[in-house]
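Lab notebook, page 48
Experiment: co-folding of the full assembly
Goal: obtain a model of how the components sit together before planning crosslinking
Operator: M.T.
Materials (sequences as entered):
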Amino acid sequence: MTFLIQQTLIYAVPLMIVALAGVFAERSGIINLALEGIMIFGAFAGVLFVNLTQQAGVFDAAKANDNYLALQGFMLLAMLVAAILGALFSLLLSFASVNLKADQTIGGTALNLMAPALVLFFIRIVANQNTLQMYTGDAASWFMIKKSMFGYGRNDDMGFFGSTFIDKTYLATYICIILFVVLSILLYKTRFGLRLRSCGENPQAADSLGINVYKMRYAGTTISGALAGMGGFVYALTTANCASTGEVAGFGFLALAVMIFGNWKPLNIAGAALLFGLFKCIAASYTSIDINGDGVFLLAQLGISPHIYRMLPYLVTLVVLAFTSKKSRAPKAEGIPYDKGKR
Amino acid sequence: MKQTKKLLALLLCLGMVAGLAACGGGTQGTSDSPAPESTAPAGETTPADTEEPAGEAATDPDSIDDNMTSADNTYQVAFVTDVGQLKDKSFNQGTYDGVKLYAAANDLSYKYYQPANGNEATDDDRFDAMQAAVNGGADVVVCAGYLQEAALTRAAIANPDTKFVFVDGYPLSDESGNVLTNVAGIAFKEEQAGYLAGYAAVKDGFTKLGFSGGGGGTNPACCRFGYGYVQGANAAAAEENVTVDMNYSWQYGSTFQPSSELQTMISGWYANGTQIVFACGGSMFQSISAAASANDGYVIGVDVDQSGESDTVITSAMKGLSDAVQWAVGHVYDGTWDEIGGTATSLGVNDNAVALPTSDDAWRFETFTVEKYEALYQQMVDGTLVVDDDYTKLDTTDWSNLTLTVI
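Observation: model returned without errors.
Model output:
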């Protein structure tokens, strides 16, 4: 059970935060198809930062002395770098779709095509191969929260809560969840949020009330880029041993699906991401999931082909989408470049 | 209208996912910047004194640049990579180390060629890489991996004057059945290395083991590693009078690449008590060691001594790729090619070609000592201990002290 919850969170959190990134852009009226590309770019930026900082030996002393606080700070810095570069990368999209009034679908697709190529190009320059890894050590030994940090020994039990939500987790996961909550409140309960959403529903009305639609759309897309970049790095950190390979296994597109699936509403998105994460986790590890702890691996004993399990996450998404998509309602003005002269 | 637009966008996305997945693997070509070597020197233990001490001026292979520029723009010793990356810290890298060491010691020029399209490389891509090597002036082309068979057959027929070393391979023949004398097949007795690792792990007190192999169960080398590993674990368990459990899986390994799914699966094993996993396949090591590190588990490395990669590596089932390549390339340059051309060479304990690393910092067992290991090794050399290499018997054998769970 502990294992299932932890792994589900690991898959769900990047999806969740990137889907929220999509919400911020779309609520302001810009379709952000470039989530995948921004994730790839953010992951690369974060990993490169980690690699270079390790190479410079900045945190070697902290690592040697088991100064976990400093190491967590290091990870937060890397997340921040990924977010900043993700935001910068997304400016390309906002510039094209706000200033140039270009077709947003095409702009996003262009970024999606550009990011992996650009990142692989950089990786080959930096690492002379197709993968950029940490300079030394692995993600778990540097950044993972373990019970030993709290003075527990190898065989001590932390209890269900401790072993599920503290031991063997990444701080990044919780930062993302907190950010998710804070930003959802920002979107729904603040003046800024209301203005942002109004630009995605009826920009003309918003403009007539003195809201600068261009600024709002820039803000929405930039927040979106920062979140997606950070999500990309969190994905690389928690599931790919902090390595950047010019891809994020389609998580950006999945996040888009999760966003539509979640009807552009944060709570639904969180649910959708958890559902998808759960099935993704079951697909990869069904042979070692022991739900009630009696040593019987039920799913493995059913004797179903592993391919069925691997299809499950996508099948479930399709089925749920089929049932919910009728009710889904996209922001009204999304995808339409705002033209002051048009009413 | 809006709805259809949305749908169209979604469809486009899906198309992109497929497209990206297809070409995610790889760019080719070489760049000039030297690879930043990570932490530890992937030190071969000692240059095994096989029949011929070819590159005796053995230096650290990592100190030799991967890319060299020769004055006349021809490259005499060429290397064509297997799937995965050159710097996989395992199979490709170990083989290329041999090329570099021999070439550096004998003042030859060398170059590596990666077949186009990465892990989706076709026989045509591989043939093109070999032909490029031949056109680049190669006297000998070292081709790593059994996947190269079809391309290598073509290349060897097309270029009868060029010598080919087929690592993890066997002799090849043309359509009318004539053995190609310009191809030397070099295989290893991986089952012996696997046996040593499995035996050592169980002797050291591990009772819940795992095996995660690359190539999807079709790679003979990985199959032999795995089969030997099971035999060794079973034998040690019988001696200790214990029963050991083993998870045995080829899943998520067909391309030898790390993946989040592989990491999750192995994490699941560790979370359910598996103590040590044999990471049998190039870059897959990344995912497996990440899972081990997160769960305080242990890993057995493969092909080369991987103890420098992670503290979780307790030992490595090594095969002397570097030495074997130097030995074979040596035969090209000292005029004794006829001894190995067109024949199958299978290197095992008798040739010092398979082993566990015994240097102090690589030996991380607690109760199993180097002396005990060497005694076991000697038994294999004497022939008193024979490790079976027919891996098709893995499923049908009734293991006395081992519960095998094939996943």
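Interpretation: The two ends of chain B are 48 Å apart (CA to CA).
Next step: discuss with group before ordering constructs.
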